[in-house]
Specification:
two-stranded antiparallel sheet; 119 residues; 2 strands; mainly alpha; 50% helix
């Protein structure tokens, strides 16, 4: 049997705990850093906070951190973490965004995009 690393985070990082964890992986926040946070968990919760709560402070630091430290991220674990925690709110928000798009169907029922700026 092969060893498989745990995907789900043990705790949900929010508020000051998330700030301390982000500081622990090298993001510049004026808080006491955690010594050894799980990088993928921190990236997941930071991106979730930035996207769902529109926290541009976190998104800015997160993007700059990823530009510098991307080779150190276990992208496979991060992808599996995101896939396993997709919830109904995320699915609904994606559906809500797609409802406003006009789509035209051809004879073989394959959707084709319609440019909204062309009459």
């Amino acid at each position: 049997m092969r060893f498989r690393r745990q995907i789900a985070p043990l705790v949900r990082l929010e508020g000051a705990e998330l700030d301390r964890a982000m500081s622990g992986i090298g993001m510049s926040f004026a808080v006491e850093p955690y010594p050894y946070p799980a990088i993928e968990d921190v990236l997941f919760f930071a991106s979730q906070l930035g996207m769902e709560k529109n926290d541009f402070r976190v998104l800015n630091v997160l993007c700059k951190w990823i530009d510098v430290h991307a080779p150190r991220v276990n992208a496979d674990r991060l992808r599996r973490l995101a896939d396993s925690s997709a919830d109904l709110r995320t699915e609904r928000s994606g559906l809500a965004r797609n409802e406003g798009r006009r789509v035209e169907r051809s004879d073989d029922h394959q959707p084709t995009r319609v440019d909204p700026f062309v009459p």
